[in-house]
Design brief:
There is one protein chain. The protein is α+β, with helices and mostly antiparallel strands and about 80 residues long. Helix content is about 45%, strand content about 20%. The chain contains two helices and three strands, in the order βαββα. The chain has a three-stranded mixed beta sheet. It is globular and about 40 Å long.
Amino acid sequence: MIEVKWDFEGAELDRDAAKAAVEKILNFYTGGLAGITCPTHGQKPGLKVQGRTVETLVVSVEACCQTLLDRANDRIRSISRRDQE
């Protein structure tokens, strides 16, 4: 399971709408990211959600080191390219 951290910056964010939006993102990337672990630390990547409104939410990958971050981002780019074809 991918860990998701929520960092809301304001009260105006509709948390239910934000969670619904992020669930769509998670459903898209979970399969690809689930198999990735850090070869050094054994950790899995996580996601961090930040923003004030659903329109301005930023979802970023968190990792224990640069190697894991690079692997996760490479996989996301790969999945995104396949989805656009």
